[in-house]
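User: Structure tokens for this complex, please. No commentary.
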Amino acid sequence: MKIKLCYADRMTESASKIVSSHQVPVPLPECALARAIRAIGDGWTLLILREALCGVERFDAMHDDLGIPRSVLAERLSKLVAEGILEQRPYREPGRRQRNGYVLTEKGRALTPALVALREWSEAHLPGGPSRLRLQTADGQEVVTRLMRADGVVLDNSSEIVAVAKPE
Amino acid sequence: MKIKLCYADRMTESASKIVSSHQVPVPLPECALARAIRAIGDGWTLLILREALCGVERFDAMHDDLGIPRSVLAERLSKLVAEGILEQRPYREPGRRQRNGYVLTEKGRALTPALVALREWSEAHLPGGPSRLRLQTADGQEVVTRLMRADGVVLDNSSEIVAVAKPE
DNA sequence: AACTTGGGTATGAAAAATGGACTCAGGTGA
DNA sequence: TCACCTGAGTCCATTTTTCATACCCAAGTT
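Assistant:
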């Protein structure tokens, strides 16, 4: 997947044609969402982050859980470490030699809301029955995501959201 | 990416070894998050959803914006339509023949919180400067996502979230 | 009739994923 | 000591996707 570094001229030539605030071609390099997708937007990477969120740290455990080819897992793990989303944590079991596991960094843990939102969407809109994966607080309450306005008012899911391009 | 249909035996054999509530290998088919990732977790698909969220409806506009190969775009769009995330909306410009655009269904719009969360993560943790893509309410206030407990209390981002497997 | 345009297909080359074998280091048991 | 085991990878041949470019088609325009 080769993401283009810049938009074609469509934006400039069509800028005056934008009537509604919809139809907003923000150039990819100036879009935080596009950058996030470039960083973690691939199926195996997201599943690896799910494992990490569940506290699975070891190469072989991830390999067994996901059925991912070892070479792909190795490549994705090192990419996530290079990006600062995972870090290696050496550990040793009694009577075993030292090995490294992979755990989320602060930056990696900050992806929790996105993963929770995906989980909620899936439960609400995809077939497959209820999820056995629960994400909860230390005191056992389920965690959910909600859209809010910047002033803290929670939005119901019928509210209209519009995408606009900030003037450069 | 071939996601395994079921876990290896690790879960059953290791079930008693789970000490902390971390290390929770929920089988992939019983995990809503895994199902969401299988449905939309690939880079081009996420970028197409971003276009749709921005109100871009036409094949050629998406092609120009993303630089995606036409064949890949055609394949992804038809998959999204088959999954009920996008729907074709025929339109005709004056003096032009009828064509179809692609717009989000209700199910597709329900992905907004996940995409907003990704955008926020990117702005907070990836380099690249501020995003020009703004998501806001009709009255112009920025929209954000927040983690909450089920009882409505907003969690700050230092709160500990634990993943647990519901008993089957 | 010839030309244009949006919205796709077809095709061959290039890149990535897959699955299985192989490696390597350190610990264990005989 | 030496053969063997294990976790954590690397290597490689085969298959599958992507990529880029060219081509196609239907309706409207000149």
